[in-house]
Every structure is written in C-alpha cells, then in structure tokens.
Amino acid sequence: MFGWVATGGSTAIGVQKIQSQLLISLSLSMDIDDGDPTPLAVKEWQHILQHATIVASAYMSMIATIIDFNTIKKNPIPYHTSALSGEAWVIELLIGHPDHIRCELGMHAHIFVGLVDELHELGHDDSKFVSLEEQLAIFLYMSVTGLSIRHSGERFQ
After folding, report:
1. Hey, which end of the chain has fewer CB within 10 Å, N or C?
2. Rounded to whole angstroms, how far apart are CA atoms 35 and 28?
3. Residue 80: is its pLDDT beyond 70?
4. Is residue 31 helix, strand or coil?
5. Residue 71 near residue 26, CB atoms below 8 Å
6. All structural domains of the chain with their residue ranges
7. Widest CA span of the chain, in angstroms?
8. H-state helical runs in 30-108
9. DSSP state of 33
10. How far is CA 28 from CA 44, 50, 124, in A?
C-alpha cells in the first residue's frame, strides 16, 4: 500500500490515493443490508478516514525527511574550509608581528621556539600528522583563550 512512496510520489497525491483506497475498503466493509447506511455509521467511517489520513501524512513526512537526510549525508558540505591550516597559522605567528603571537599564544616568538627546542631535547617529537610546533600552539591557544576543543578545531584544521 505504501510502496509508491519510495518511487518518488508526491505527498498530496499519496494522501489522495490512500484516501480513495480507504474509502473503497470502508464502503465494502460497511453493513448495508437495508440499502443505505445510517448517518451515524457514515460519520464514524469519516472519522476513521480522517485519522487514517493524518497517520498516512505523518508517515509520508517522515519518509520524505529520511530521504532528504540521506541526500545530505551522501553530499556532505565541507566544514573546515579555512585558507590556513594550523601549521600555516603557526608559521604566520612566528614570522608575523611580535605582538600577534603574544596575544594568541601568551608568549613571544623566541620563548615559543625555545620551548619547542626544550621539548625536542626531552624526547618529544612530531606526531604522524601534526608537528610539535603545532601541538604546542594548540595547547597554548586553548590555555590562553579557554576555548573548547570544537572552537579550537576551527583554528587548527
């Protein structure tokens, strides 16, 4: 009965189709031994038809939402689209205005470079995808700004 939804039928046409199918099945099931049904029986069937239409509309809206959601998932919109990667931003801080790195990371460039050298001497090194300089910059940036990981991820992508 609902197989047509997956083939792309519109909601309005679908509701009309369900209504007509329900009317046919309800008229066949009505007890009309005397000929005409009573007005009470007709009202009861109209009430049932209204509820069935509401349920069918809700069902079709849910199916349409799922189809739209799956379409979005198949064609994702890029989220991290900054022109600068995290490493490029760290390089910009190191060669840029001296107050810029102080504002963003809480220390001057020469102290940052000395701290990176000290970490290298202690055995710390670049990870597979993130340089030690960028790792330190992430830590300092989050410490200075107090931003969450999600907000810091906007800067270091």
Report:
1. N
2. 13
3. no
4. coil
5. no
6. 3-74, 86-155
7. 101
8. 39-74, 86-95, 98-105
9. T
10. 15, 18, 81
**CB-CB contact of 108 with 89 (8 Å):** no
Q: What is the pTM of this model?
A: 0.50
Query: Hey, CA dihedral for 98, 99, 103, 104, is it positive or negative?
Result: negative
Distance between CA atoms of residues 31 and 38, nearest Å:
9
- Residue of 58, 52, 57, 66 whose CA lies nearest to 6: 66
Q: What is the mean pLDDT of residues 31-36?
A: 55
**Class of residue 41 by CB neighbours under 10 A (exposed 0-12, middle 13-18, buried 19+):** middle
Task: State the pLDDT confidence band at 123, using cuts at 50, 70 and 90.
Answer: very high
Side-chain half-sphere exposure of 101, counting CA atoms within 13 A: 21
Q: Percentage of residues in the chain with pLDDT exceeding 90?
A: 6
The pLDDT-based confidence of 114 (bands split at 50, 70, 90) is very high
Supply the pLDDT for residue 14: 62
The first and second tokens of residue 97, run together, are 């205005």
**Encoded tokens for 133:** 């300089």
pLDDT of residue 24: 63
